[in-house]
Amino acid sequence: xxxxxxxxxxxxxxxxxxxxxxxxxxxxxxxxxxxxxxxxxxxxxxxxxxxxxxxxxxxxxxxxxxxxxxxxxxxxxxxxxxxxxxxxxxxxxxxxxxxxxxxxxxxxxxxxxxxxxxxxxxxxxxxxxxxxxxxxxxxxxxxxxxxxxxxxxxxxxxxxxxxxxxxxxxxxxxxxxxxxxxxxxxxxxxxxxxxxxxxxxxxxxxxxxxxxxxxxxxxxxxxxxxxxxxxxxxxxxxxxxxxxxxxxxxxxxxxxxxxxxxxxxxxxxxxxxxxxxxxxxxxxxxxxxxxxxxxxxxxxxxxxxxxxxxxxxxxxxxxxxxxxxxxxxxxxxxxxxxxxxxxxxxxxxxxxxxxxxxxxxxxxxxxxxxxxxxxxxxxxxxxxxxxxxxxxxxxx
Length: 396
Ligand SMILES: [Zn+2]
Fold this sequence. Notes:
Layout: E1 3-4, H1 16-27, H2 37-49, E2 54-58, E3 65-71, E4 79-84, E5 103-105, E6 108-110, H3 114-126, H4 128-133, E7 140-145, H5 156-161, E8 171-174, E9 182-186, E10 188-197, E11 201-202, H6 212-233, E12 245-253, E13 259-260, E14 263-272, H7 280-300, E15 305-314, E16 317-318, H8 324-333, E17 338-341, H9 347-352, E18 357-359, E19 374-376, H10 377-394
Parallel strand pairs: 4-7, 4-8, 8-18, 9-17
Antiparallel strand pairs: 1-5, 2-3, 3-7, 5-6, 6-19, 9-16, 10-14, 10-15, 11-13, 12-14
Helix pairs in contact: 1-3, 3-10, 6-7, 8-10
């Protein structure tokens, strides 16, 4: 059975407020390439209606913004609850229903962003009346970011202000989908673009040209070889897979089948274990280019070149020993075990900035970024219980 939540009044009573908030949040198309300001306005208004002021941290071009809001006593450092507002595109995916309208089917709430990570934001907003009603000994800070899906770039200007004109929380919970498990480590990402310049020629005379696509194919083959070498050497069983990985994501080049191509470029990523040396793969690829490819290419034309540029990095996350953020999440979830994940989040950036962090949020990462993304109502209930426990712990 499918229920459009706009029309139904028979929602699970425990989570009606959360579901209505989630319905509103997913209605804003906050794909990373688009503005998130409509969503930010909604959150600002919602908080204002509950007597809470918030601070916007606008993007350099003013089309997006982060939001920071504090509930309760400001003399103590407090706990940050952090979530990104943006989501990944739906283009090319086959959805069973409109990705921007929340639909319930069998206890699961479907729409883009439900799992990653508007479900968490909805739980935090739905808990605001409770946070307001309790006499909090130390504050709860709500942090909403943009462009997390574009290399975790949006939260960085906000983090730069923590401890300056914005309070620095003593612990931050990043509510990415972990099925409410406690995550204390993740891998690092480095993204690169490699451009190959060759020489055009008639395809009947390939020897007087330098085939940029063929050189790119050799480089990609080398990346595959380097990846296999790393997989054979590294083994950290906390991670799945237990080694750093190398992956090529895009390639473009050439103009026609009868022209030896002059240009080819491809984008690739290394996702490194926190203990691995992230510069190793680009260094080895460059050494391969210098010795195995370029000498031959330069014999034909001095224009031949292979250039690799860094497109962005997201630091690994490793919670500090005896992290108070991890201790808090373990207590609130009633578990003793932490886990590590291979995807990246904003937690490494918070940790680097001196805010002990932990990742714990509703929904399963398997549904994130996929068609028919969903979060289960049971997961939202678990997150609401976590936030109610936090309110208990912070109040008298
Ligand atoms: Zn996310």
